[in-house]
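Subject: mismatched residue count in predicted assembly?

I count 1206 residues in my input, but I want to confirm that the predicted structure covers every chain. Input:
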Amino acid sequence: MLLSCTWLSELLGRPLDVSPPFDAGNPFSAVNIAARLTNLGLEVEGVEYFELPKIIVGRVDDVSPHPDAAKLNVVQLFDGARTIQVVCGASNLPPVGGKVAFAPVGAVLPDGLELSERELRGVVSNGMICSETELRIGSDGDGILVLPSDWEPGTLLQDLVPGIRDAVIEISVTPNRPDALGHLGVARDLALALGCELTLPPVSEVTTGEPMPTLVTLEAGDRCPRYLGYALEGCRVGPSPLWLRVRLHRVGLRPRNNVVDVTNFVLFETGQPMHAFDRQRLSGERVVVRQAAAGEPITTLDDTKLELDPDDLVIADAKTPQALAGIMGGEGSMVEAATTRLLLEVAFFEPRAIRRSARRYGLRTDSSHRFERQVDFAAQLELAAARAVSLLQQLSGARCVGHCDARAELPVPAQISLDPDHVGRLLGMDVSASEIARILQGLGVSVDRTNPQAWRCEPPSYRPDLGRDVDLIEEVMRHHGLDELPARHSSSPEELPVLPEDPLRALANALTDGLRACDLHEHVSLAFTAEEHTLPFVSEFQATQLVRPVNPMRSQQGCMRPHLLPGLLDAVAYNLGRHTRPLGLFEVGRVYLWPLTSDDAPDSGNPTDEVDRYLPTEPSRAAAIRAQRVSGDSPTGELARALTRDLSATLARVGLPAQLRAPTQPRPWLHPGVQVGLWIGDREVGVAGELHPDLLAGRDLGEFELGYGELWLEALPPLPTVQFQDVARFPATTRDLSLDLDTRISSAEVLAALTRAAESAAAPGDVQDPPRLANADEPRRPIELLEDYRGAGIESGRHALLLRLNYRAGQRSVTDAEVQALHDKVVAGALEQLTRVDPAARIR
Amino acid sequence: MAADANPTPQEQLDAALLGFESALPQVSSEAELYELQVRFLGKNGAVTKLRSLMGKVPPAQRKELGQAFNRVKQAIDDGLAGRKLALAEAARERNLSRHVDLTFVPDPPRPGTLHPITQTRRELEHVFRRLGFDVVDGPHVEAELYSFDKLNIQPDHPARDMQDTFFIARPEHDPREGAPSLVLRPHTSPVQARTMLRHGAPIRIIAPGTTFRRDDDPTHSPMFHQIEGLYVDRNVTMADLKATLYRFVGAFFGEGLAVRFRPSYFPFVEPGAEFDMQCAFCFDGQLSHGCGLCKQSGWIELGGSGMVHPAVLEQCGIDPSVYTGWAFGFGIDRMAMLRHGISHLRHNFEGDLRVLEQFTSP
Ligand SMILES: [Zn+2]
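Triage response: the counts match. Full output below for your records.
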């Protein structure tokens, strides 16, 4: 909302200082007004200053064609003292005796151009005859500004037209302050803050003619509880006077004609929208306020053809809708040059329905903006109507011949009980009862202080936001100011509860730290993804499980991510296109999926279950990716290995060591031969591997090797607290073992075979405290994988696994012989199992 | 002469000593020294073996031979010890003569990093935990009921336009009726409603989390992060809010920075106010003189706040005639950008390695 300080000064009944530099001590300067507005909750976005210090009225004394340029004229202009020669190219130059806006040599135009004597095709021009746009007092740049012929030559234009010198303050008005959408409401706030008297807009004595009860019929109940209609005759439609055009221009409006300009002027003055119909073009010369029939057509002023909804409110004549009520007039009854008879509408419409209609058609107008925030239905409505009728009479010669005040049931003003002590209790500072009363009354609230602990307050009808005592307290706060508010803790007699920590949050933090410790970089990607990027995961969920915004901003953000991979891939692609460094990223966050069945909806006994059982699932994931360019013929699996190690190390770091073995189901988006599951006990908690070449080709990442892995937080056990185990006092005895095996036998299988063999080889009862394959109390595992060797000396398709087995007893040193006997049994037992799947399995 | 051909024990001892003395200078390591010791003094060493001669000499000579034996053994021991000392000295000399250029080391691996938003969120959580707040979060896909209605943002009210919201479609495979309308939460405030409904009053929480709005321009991202604070108790005042924000700003940005309120409107609070802090980036201990970050004003706008609207308390099952409360909220992303001097919002979500790897942290 743009505020003209000239306008405010009229309503405050005193001058405001609108041109810089300002006296910091002057509360009535534009900068201090702006600061004051911000402190009142009307946040200032900016202030712009306008003035035309040297532009004067010039009289055309002679016009002759330029000798050397067809489109130019040489004008002899009288500036009040002497005659000056000016070259002018405008086609609307007034005849001799006419008045124009003249910028003499030395004048500076608002765009910064300083005028000097100059030659135009051999003729000297001593200044410039200006247009509205050049002076920034209007938007008509087609020709020069022609002034009324009775204006005195030589007079400064800004002395003749109020509002040429002005400061325009832009404020952002929050939705609770419809009153501040007109200068009057802002002036009311300022008057109280600055200690001056509010001056209501002048209304000249006008006759409103005969009552014409048939002029308006209300058929929409509380959708339109009040409608003032005025019938005006003898209107002469034409351009508005300069002061009005300047005023509208200052607040960002384009002048149309005197009738429309008056309605807009009053709207910006009082905040009350209004509409003028060409009464001649209304069938039956009257209006009906009713709801639209389904599909009823209307063409609005901006030439949009709408098919209406029964929820829409319309102003119809005897036949068809002539306006979408409170939003926009219809093209069929708009005021035109030939219009002489008007029907002026000043009404109150139910806010929420106006908002529904405006949104339905995407029509946001100055009018709907105010109606949907609720305008006044009482004194201010009547004031606005009288102001408009008076201005129409003054500016267009229209006389009011009849009027109608149609009413249905009006909103009831709130009755608020206010305990004045509650003001201080809520704010935490003392505000005296008289100060509270002064502020509330200054804002138009009627205050009955009969009961000192329960004042009866009735807010004015132009403040629909005031409905409870806290609303009044806010008004007191706004006007009393918050500068004195102390920073003081309050004391409460109650013990605050300590809420349980969310274990998932702790786990997410721990995994974040763990992945970061693997020299990976944390990435945060937008939680949206393109549906096509979810296709690789079709085996894991169904398309209907995708969570989709109804109103996405773009198709690449068409659904919520069901997986962290697409976001990490986007980041990888972004980086690989910009630099050549190897890349390692991770992300910890939620993915979104509708559950397939609603039977397992949560029922935790919480009051939020009512809603929660309808929500999608938001499982948390921790995912990491590593990328580098493939150097040879095909990837080496190096990054998949690195990723697997990253995830294993991260889990080990948080005290949840995992085993690596085949995943429960192979992931089609991972390389079929390069993937592994991470298991804790019999629970799969994650998967890692190399991204499938087809997936990479689809992302134009074919030349790269990408390792990817993820952990599923909901599958992980809670973070454990480490339980101390005493360190072993007796050293372990180790035996190394080298096995020649088919490469399809994984290390995990070999480890499992050895572990099983060791379990059955133990001979309980034979010896007290026998040696075992065990090393749980040392950082080393009982079986360490030292090397996985392929190449010279090994047949192709086979590999040599070098393993180290640790044996120990609990409370004594073991002898070599004991260990050797056990080791032989373990190896024999393991080989027996392995030869079942690989008959050639042997010790090297 | 045959008897003479057999060397006497003394001669044998002398020969052994001679052998030792000629071998000793050849020794160049501790291992060789040990070998030499074994060769002469070990179980089967040349000198040890001569001990058996003791039994073969007449008893009268035994004492003399014993003494000779001990002298030889002593000589060997001394030789070994001396040589050991010399070897250690030489090794020390060699060691000390080394020179390593430590001005050159291979580039260390680049350390992993935490995203600046994560770092900032954690720091905020840390500060507020110290101030006695619990940390909670809620679903990102949230019912309109908790996102708006329970927060005093009525349907068809213009306050709904204060945030452009993503709506979520129901899944085709779920035929249940009566499902609530769902949105991507446009603010973290639904967590307030959920926590009050679940735990009642008194309560003191912060809710940091991911939020979504239909905004995408150089200063807005459709996904962003907010943190929200809520305190509901008996006697809670706006002055208490100011004290808390003051302590937070002091702990997060530095002591002594002032906090101010500007009246504003947020439907879930009444009275409502925006809060600013004195610019920490041009603060001289007393005044903030103005800089680029505060647009020369000396103040930085942080967020919105106010006293919880009694209608919100009622909606969330708390009696507003007994309890009052305050709430505040602000953007974590912007806080991260301020803290690290990040120039553009887009750096937050692109995942550019050259950006991310800068944010090392302890
Ligand atoms: Zn600054």
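The first helix of chain A runs from residue 5 to 12. Marking this ticket as 'not a bug'.
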